[in-house]
Specification:
This protein has helices at about 35-40, 55-65, 85-95, 115-125, 175-185, 195-205, 220-230; strands at about 1-5, 25-30, 30, 50-55, 70-75, 100-105, 110, 130-135, 145-150, 155-160, 165-175, 205-210, 215-220. By secondary structure, it is an alpha/beta fold. The protein has one domain (about 1-135, about 170-230): Spore Coat Polysaccharide Biosynthesis Protein SpsA, Chain A (Alpha-Beta Complex). Strands 5-4-1-6-11-8-12 form a 7-stranded mixed beta sheet, with helices on both faces. A two-stranded antiparallel sheet has the order 2-3. It starts with a strand and ends with a helix. This is Mannose-1-phosphate guanyltransferase, putative.
C-alpha cells in the first residue's frame, strides 16, 4: 500500500504557537507531529509513503535524514502553495508511473488513528472510487458536514451550522484511474480538494464514507494544538 501525506501548507493560523518550524514538525510531547502520523502508518502494510512538502521544506527533509521508518519515504516538493487539491494533482502528475491503482491520502495536520485495514476493506467491498473516513462531531462549526444514503454513499456536503454532524476526518482512499480527469480538468495549480473537488466528485464517481469513533485532532489552530498533547499521549 502507498500513502500521500499533505504537509506543504503554510500553517499561518498556528504561527502564534509555532513559528520556527513548519506545521508537520510542530512539537507534541517532545516529538514532531508527523512522527506520530508515520508511527501510526507503520502498523499497516505500507511499502512507500510520499510526503508533499513546501513551507520550510528543508527542515522536514533534514528531520528524515536522522529518523528512519519501516517504509520508503519520498518527498514531493511544492515550489509554491498548491492547496490540498493542487498537491494531489502535482503528486499524480509527477509520480504517475509509481503510484498504485488505489492509494491513501492523509492531511498533514490531522491525527485520526482509525483502523486502516478495516477502512480499506470497506473501500474494496463497495468498489468505491473515493472513500472518506468520517466521524461524528458535536457542535460542529468548522467542518463541512457529510450527508449519506443507506448504503454509505455520499450525497451532499453541507456547510457547518454548529450542530452535531458527520465530518470529514482527513483520510481518503482514491482509485487513481477514476480521479485524474476530475483533478486535471480546468484547474489552476492552487485549489482545495475539500471545497473544489469533493462536491463535484459525488456526482461523477462512486464516493462513500465510513464512520469511525476514534479520537480526532486537527492541530491547525492554537486551541486544538494545545489539546493535541493529551489526545496523542494515549497512543
Amino acid at each position: 500500500m502507498q500513502a500521500l501525506i499533505l504537509a506543504g501548507g503554510l500553517g499561518k493560523r498556528l504561527r502564534s504557537m509555532v513559528s520556527d518550524v513548519p506545521k508537520p514538525l510542530a512539537p507534541i510531547n517532545n516529538y514532531p507531529f508527523i512522527y506520530y502520523q508515520l508511527r501510526y502508518l507503520e502498523k499497516y502494510n505500507f511499502q512507500k509513503v510520499f510526503i508533499s512538502i513546501g513551507y520550510k521544506k528543508e527542515l522536514i527533509v533534514n528531520y528524515f535524514k536522522k529518523n528512519k521508518f519501516s517504509f520508503d519515504i519520498k518527498f514531493i516538493e511544492e515550489n509554491s502553495p498548491l492547496g490540498t487539491g493542487g498537491a494531489i494533482k502535482h503528486f499524480l502528475i509527477t509520480q504517475d508511473s509509481g503510484i498504485d491503482d488505489n492509494f491513501f491520502v492523509l492531511n498533514g495536520d490531522t491525527y485520526f488513528p482509525i483502523d486502516l485495514s478495516e477502512f480499506y476493506k470497506f473501500y474494496l467491498n463497495l468498489n468505491s472510487d473515493l472513500s472518506i473516513a468520517s466521524r461524528n462531531m458535536d457542535k460542529n462549526d468548522r467542518y463541512s458536514s457529510i450527508d449519506v444514503d443507506e448504503n454509505n454513499r455520499i450525497i451532499k456536503f453541507v456547510k457547518p451550522n454548529g450542530h452535531s454532524s458527520l465530518i470529514n476526518g482527513g483520510i481518503y482512499i482514491f482509485k487513481k484511474n477514476k480521479i485524474n480527469s476530475i483533478f486535471f480538468a480546468n484547474r489552476n495549480e492552487n485549489f482545495s480538494v475539500e471545497e473544489d473537488i469533493f462536491p463535484i466528485a459525488i456526482h461523477e464517481i462512486k464516493c462513500h464514507t465510513k464512520k469511525f469513533d476514534t479520537d480526532f485532532i486537527d492541530i491547525g489552530i492554537p486551541d486544538d494544538y494545545v489539546r493535541a498533547s493529551d489526545i496523542i499521549s494515549k497512543i
